[in-house]
Specification:
The structure holds 2 protein chains of 2 kinds. Chain A is built from 7 helices and no strands. Chain A is mainly alpha-helical. Chain B has one domain: Cytochrome c oxidase-like, subunit I domain (Cytochrome C Oxidase, Chain A), CATH 1.20.210.10. Chain B is 68% helix and 0% strand. Chain B has 17 helices and no strands. The radius of gyration of chain B is 23 Å and the shape is globular. The chains are: A mainly alpha, B mainly alpha.
Chain lengths: 197, 536
């Protein structure tokens, strides 16, 4: 019925490779999207080193570190799930996706507590260039976390419906690659914002 | 009898007739229908943008604000620029003709991700609606949105750039789809060096779109955040840097001019060999020069900022690379001319537009180095010379290439031939109108007329009158062309599968093509330009 079936490209290996090329191309776009932000960061950090040093001490390193651990664990759980479904283990995938979604939600909750802490101290976007950058970078990253979680939730629903097997789990593979990217961005954001000396 | 015949002819369902009704279009996964939807939306906005352009010209008929206030004039030229750039020139060839013809030209049944393709056209439609919503407080910043003014004006900048952001996402996803389609769905035997040159140019375009568009997307998000939260990145009062905005804007918007011109170059590379009945000359040189333009196009954005206060070193760097873009562009032009040399040239309308493209694009291209050279850019910056230069590349280049493509592929898209006489009359008016309107502006710019001014010293009036009259001739030509497009949908002669005797795959299927494009996926054994040698 669908165009794809008419196309004669139902071969799962073909579909997987095609979809992977698609998501990697999309990651190139995402990289440039964050690349613009990293450029803003570089420009202002060179321009105002003292401001950046003084302001970054106000960030909560403990929560930032906790979030780093949370996201690395979530990357691991996605990878475990994908390894599982490649062997045909649907249950492992289900558990892994649930764990990943919980970790993703935990990241957002911790981030929310950080935001609240800053709001209470009167540190808003626009307070100074550093805090503007902090909010813009982390908020846009958080949006990507939400997008990644939506993709993984979709995968979870389809896993429940029994759509995936050792032969076919393309949406999971693709969403997994995306999730790793979202984690990787945080791996850069954390030292750039919280840890510079 | 006649009815019976027509019934017989039309009994084979094609992509237009297989299903009917509005929802069969809105939810279609067929790349051809999606291409047609893009084409209709985009051509409509071409006319809207054209009306704003005519109003701008009308105001300039007299030097004394006779028609509108300065503020209204600012809004008019901004709307002209924004609509023409973001709703027309950037998406028109890739999203409309690219969607329709890329799968056909490479021997595929559809793009790699048909549902993503449908999502892209919805995103585009949503973006268009948001842009229209912003007309409640018409934008007055110029299409470049320079800060700090764009952060302060009462116009609906936030809404407008939000709409453009959505259209940018649509462009990115379409480009992604094309890249994957070209990599993965080529027919058996369709090697990279057997690809039609239109595909090479669309591939280069798509790479630019994927890499450059997100940067302007982020820039627009930062501009919105600037307006909503006062983040201060571009506001000198808060320690920000307005030049940073210009760098970001042009990091996208200069490569974007290659997004506009490369697809048109691809169309010209298809049309020239077909109407010269000769193999294309220098296939690889044309293909690789598309990639070279895409690459070096990323290194030249600073030439928009020579008088904005960059360092001397940056000025020299950007000037040098600006000149380097001329090399692959020149390679293409020489190869097109060499293709025509000793060819059997047929002056059908598509070919006439292709020749017009070469003629006016060379003028547009050669006036580029005047602006890329540091010494001459200083007096010419922000004068009508710049206006003339980019209208020669965009209108004389991209739009002529688009018109060539529309006349070339109209029979394939609609199953009808255009009226050749009307088409040629429209061309004559467009050609004359275009040159009268814009050639004059080079001289006007040299004499010192600044761009974006609603009034001017009386000594410039004669030339402004010439340009305004030219714009009316141009408009008449375009109206006649659209009349021909619409009239021939019903009244045109039925188109044979291959009216031009072309070798590319889209002409080997019926006009209009069936929904799945090919009954059987073709096996490719030769490149698509294997016209017989003249003496054979």
């Amino acid at each position: 019925m669908s165009e794809r079936e008419k196309g004669g490209h139902e071969n799962p290996v073909f579909v997987l490779e095609t979809s992977k090329l698609g998501i990697w191309t999309f990651l190139a776009t995402e990289l440039l999207l964050f690349g613009a932000l990293f450029t803003v960061y570089t420009v202002f950090r060179i321009k105002y080193p003292e401001l950046f040093y003084a302001q970054h001490l106000k960030l909560n390193r403990v929560m930032g570190f906790a979030n780093t651990v949370v996201l690395i664990c979530s990357s691991l759980s996605v990878a475990v799930g994908i390894a599982g479904i490649r062997r045909g283990n649907v249950k492992a995938l289900k558990i892994a996706l649930v764990v990943t979604l919980i970790l993703g939600a935990a990241f957002l909750v911790i981030k929310g507590f950080e935001y609240r802490e800053h709001f209470e101290r009167g540190e808003f976007p626009g307070t100074n260039i550093f805090f503007s950058l902090y909010y813009v970078m982390t908020a846009i990253h958080a949006l990507h976390v939400v997008a990644g979680m939506s993709a993984l939730a979709y995968c979870l629903i389809r896993t429940m419906r029994g759509d995936f097997s050792a032969d076919y789990a393309v949406p999971v593979e693709v969403s997994g690659i995306y999730w790793h990217f979202v984690d990787l961005v945080w791996i850069y954001l954390f030292p750039m914002l919280y840890l510079m000396g | 009898m006649i009815n019976g015949l027509i019934m017989n002819e039309t009994s084979e369902p094609n992509y237009l007739t297989e299903t009917r009704g509005l929802s069969s279009w809105i939810f279609t996964l067929d790349h051809k229908r999606i291409g047609i939807m893009y084409l209709c939306i985009i051509l409509f906005f071409f006319l809207v943008g054209g009306v704003f352009g005519l109003l701008v010209r009308l105001e300039l008929l007299k030097p004394n604000n006779w028609l509108m206030s300065n503020q209204t004039y600012n809004e008019m030229f901004t709307l002209h620029g924004v609509i023409m750039i973001f709703l027309f020139v950037i998406p028109v060839i890739p999203s409309a003709l690219g969607n329709f013809f890329i799968p056909l030209l490479i021997g595929a049944r559809d793009v790699a991700f048909p549902r993503l393709n449908l999502f892209s056209v919805w995103l585009f439609g949503a973006g268009v609606l948001v842009v229209i919503a912003s007309f409640s407080h018409p934008i007055d910043t110029g299409w470049t949105f320079y800060t700090p003014y764009s952060a302060r004006t009462a116009a609906a900048v936030t809404i407008l750039v939000g709409g453009i952001f959505l259209m940018g996402m649509s462009t990115i996803l379409t480009a992604l789809n094309f890249i994957v389609t070209i990599h993965r769905l080529r027919a058996p035997g369709m090697t990279w060096h057997r690809l039609p040159l239109f595909i090479w140019s669309m591939y280069a375009t798509s790479i630019i779109n994927v890499i450059a568009t997100p940067v302007v997307g982020m820039t627009f998000m930062l501009l919105m955040a600037e307006r909503l939260f006062g983040i201060g990145f571009f506001d000198p009062a808060k320690g920000g840097d307005p030049l940073l905005f210009q760098h970001f804007f042009w990091f996208y918007s200069h490569p974007a001019v290659y997004v506009m011109i490369l697809p048109a170059m691809g169309i010209i590379s298809e049309i020239i060999p077909v109407f010269s009945r000769k193999p294309i000359f220098g296939y690889r040189a044309i293909a690789y020069s598309s990639m070279a333009i895409a690459f070096s196009g990323f290194l030249v954005w600073g030439h928009h900022m020579f008088v904005a206060g960059m360092s001397n070193a940056a000025d020299i760097f950007f000037s040098f690379f600006t000149f380097s873009v001329a090399v692959p562009t020149g390679i293409k032009v020489f190869n097109w001319i060499a293709t025509m040399y000793k060819g059997s040239i047929h002056l059908d309308t598509p070919m006439i537009y292709a020749l017009t493209f070469i003629f006016s694009f060379v003028i547009g291209g050669l006036t580029g180095p005047f602006l890329g050279a540091l010494a001459t850019d200083v007096p010419l910056h922000d004068t009508y010379f710049v206006v003339a230069h980019f209208h020669y590349t965009m209108m004389g280049g991209t739009v002529m290439g688009l018109f060539a493509g529309l006349h070339y592929w109209y029979p394939k898209m609609t199953g009808r031939m255009l009226n050749e006489k009307v088409a040629k009359l429209a061309w004559a008016l467009i050609f004359v109108g275009f040159f009268v309107t814009f050639f004059n502006m080079f001289i006007l710019g040299f004499r010192g007329m600044p761009r974006r001014w609603a009034t001017y010293p009386p000594r410039f009036q004669t030339q402004h009158i010439i340009s305004t009259v030219g714009s009316w001739i141009l408009a008449a030509g375009i109206v006649i062309m659209f009349y021909n497009f619409i009239r021939c949908l019903k009244k045109g002669e039925k188109a044979p599968p291959n009216p031009w005797g072309a070798k590319t795959l889209e002409w080997q299927v019926p006009s209009p093509p069936p929904t799945g494009n090919f009954t059987e996926i073709p096996v490719i054994t030769d490149w698509p330009y294997s016209y017989p040698k003249r003496d054979e």
